[in-house]
Automatic annotation (TrEMBL), chain A:
Protein name: 2-amino-3-ketobutyrate coenzyme A ligase
Keywords: Ligase, Transferase
Cofactor(s) in the UniProt record: pyridoxal 5'-phosphate
Record InterPro entries: Aminotransferase_I/II_large (IPR004839), AON_synthase_class-II (IPR050087), PyrdxlP-dep_Trfase (IPR015424), PyrdxlP-dep_Trfase_major (IPR015421), PyrdxlP-dep_Trfase_small (IPR015422)
Molecular function terms, GO-annotated: ligase activity; pyridoxal phosphate binding; transferase activity
Pfam families: Aminotran_1_2 (PF00155)
Keyword Transferase attached: yes
Top-rank taxon, per record: Bacteria
Organism: Candidatus Ozemobacter sibiricus
Automatic annotation (TrEMBL), chain B:
UniProt keyword list: Phosphopantetheine, Phosphoprotein
Domain Carrier: 1-75
Cross-referenced PANTHER family: ACYL CARRIER PROTEIN, CARRIER DOMAIN-CONTAINING PROTEIN
Residues annotated as transmembrane: none
Name of this protein: Carrier domain-containing protein
Organism whose genome encodes this protein: Candidatus Ozemobacter sibiricus
GO cellular component terms given for this protein: cytosol; membrane
Length: 401, 82
């Protein structure tokens, strides 16, 4: 045992980035999410951010944040259980819960933290957690932290889930965990059917609606509105850092659940509360949504369809997702980074996913064209796609048809 | 059904994509099996044979054939001796 050996073990393997001639990770933007964004001294069309509705750089949101900071300052420098929670934050929790159609809610500094802390607070070793095979890292790690039996079920497969629920025995409580929108492919979980199965077996459904809130449903209220689930009996979580264009993690559900979390979720209790400015930012987004959601949603879907047609015409394989996301299958990790590089060189910022975020040899590059972009800009990107496909094809063994 | 056939069927059933599975199928390279998928296979075997597989029994397993070998090593009773 030596210190040198310890630090040696941490050294990253740079071969992948070298082979692809590109490292897409931890790039530092030199601007906010106004179009175009600046990176490496150049201008880009941002198809990478989760700013679905194009509100992250909206001046109205910025003004609301500035007003809250003027009133409350940057932070309350306290945990929510102490004096970190301002009236604004509590009002936001109630508003968000009502927005998604649930009794009450609590907001943590991030949804990763929310998902990580949730399970240990509500489950114990004597329980069982059934979880979608492709669930987000935050859910898997949160579930593992309980130390109970974990039973993965096949991705979005209600039949498999039901057969497992029929088999598990000897536990106190079963939980069934999924995301609403699986963001690396854009699929939507069959939540209504899953809730039905849960009710049949007395299991608690847990859904992470991070990519559904502000996106799905006639009013952008997320997956519960999308499926018309008016009396969702389970636990709902969502990131406030995607369509809601700020940061934070919501947990919502029955009042007794939320009250319990307030006293038994260490990730909430012992972490500095969401700053007032951020709470005001989310409030402002909710105000804007009430008036502008239909128009923004229309643009978001038009952009997705425009891009999807262009990608398909250029010979790319686009995954068949139902969410406003286009994921292009790229193959190996090297091929995936090379494709991200081809987009990058054409001035398009995208998100590459490689194993273990996605299955081995199913690397993909995700494009989200938010409602903040104009149709003309998206069309310009589409016009560049054939050349991008050719540049990628020129690299050895690409997957373009 | 032989033990081999049963294991092949279980691995095929717990794969995300319909793929032909044989004894020589490599879990990671051919099926993209990740850690949760390994868990799924182990639990499906436990359900099928009514056994409790020790946590590290499958740590070094690469192919379906090796799953069968590990099962035989740990649970000789799974097959009636001739
Ligand atoms: C499905 C899902 N859950 C949780 C998170 C984490 O949310 P946050 O960024 O608020 O921590 C993300 C991504 O960031 C996500 O995609």
């Amino acid at each position: 045992m030596t210190l040198a050996a310890f630090y040696d073990r941490l050294r990253l393997d740079a071969r992948l980035a070298q082979e692809a001639g590109f490292n897409p990770y931890y790039r530092h933007l030199q601007s906010g999410l106004n179009d175009p964004v600046r990176l490496d001294g150049r201008e880009f069309l941002n198809l990478a951010a989760n700013d679905y509705l194009g509100l992250a750089a909206d001046p109205r949101v910025g003004r609301a944040i500035a007003a809250a900071v003027a009133r409350y300052g940057a932070s309350l420098c306290g945990t929510p259980i102490a004096t970190g929670c301002v009236d604004l934050l509590r009002a936001l929790e109630q508003r968000l819960a009502a927005f998604v159609g649930l009794e009450d809610g609590v907001v943590l500094p991030s949804c990763y933290q929310a998902n990580n802390g949730l399970f240990s607070a509500v489950a114990g070793k004597e329980d069982v957690i059934l979880i979608d095979h492709y669930a987000h890292s935050s859910l898997i790690e949160g579930a593992k932290a309980v130390g109970c039996k974990i039973r993965p079920f096949l991705h979005n497969d209600v039949e498999h889930l039901a057969s497992l629920l029929g088999k598990v025995r000897g536990h106190r409580q079963a939980f069934v965990v999924t995301e609403s929108v699986f963001s690396t492919e854009g699929s939507i979980a069959p939540l209504a059917a899953m809730v039905e199965v849960c009710e049949r077996f007395g299991a608690v459904p847990v859904v992470d609606d991070s990519h559904g809130i502000g996106v799905l449903g006639a009013n952008g209220r997320g997956v519960l509105e999308h499926f018309g689930l008016t009396d969702f009996p389970g636990i709902y979580t969502a990131s406030l850092g995607k369509a809601l264009a700020n940061a934070g993690g919501l947990i919502a559900g029955r009042r007794s659940l939320i009250e319990h979390l307030r006293y038994f979720c260490p990730h909430l209790i012992y972490s500095t509360a969401l700053p007032p400015g951020v709470a005001a930012g989310v409030e402002a987004v909710l105000d804007i949504l009430a008036a502008e959601f239909p128009a923004r949603r229309r643009l978001l879907w038009e952009h997705r369809d425009t891009l999807r047609r262009g990608l398909t015409a250029a010979g790319f394989t686009v995954m068949a997702g139902e969410a406003p996301i286009n994921s292009v299958l790229a193959g190996s990790a090297v091929q995936t980074l090379r494709l991200a590089r081809a987009f990058y060189e054409a001035g398009l910022l995208t998100t590459p996913f490689v194993y273990p975020s996605v299955p081995l040899s199913e690397g993909r590059v995700r494009l989200i064209a938010g409602a903040g972009l104009t149709l003309a800009r998206v069309q310009a990107a589409v016009a560049a796609l054939p050349a991008i496909a050719r540049a990628w094809q020129a690299a050895p063994s690409s997957g373009v048809a | 059904m032989t033990l081999e056939e049963k294991v092949v069927a279980i691995v095929a059933k717990t794969a995300e994509k319909k793929k032909t599975v044989t004894l020589d199928t490599d879990l990671v390279h051919d099926l993209g099996t990740d850690s949760l998928a390994v868990l799924m296979i182990i639990q499906a075997l436990e359900d099928e044979f009514d056994i409790a597989i020790p946590d590290d029994a499958f740590k070094t397993v690469k192919t379906v054939r090796e799953i069968v070998a590990q099962l035989r090593a740990h649970f000789p009773h799974l097959e009636p001796t001739p």
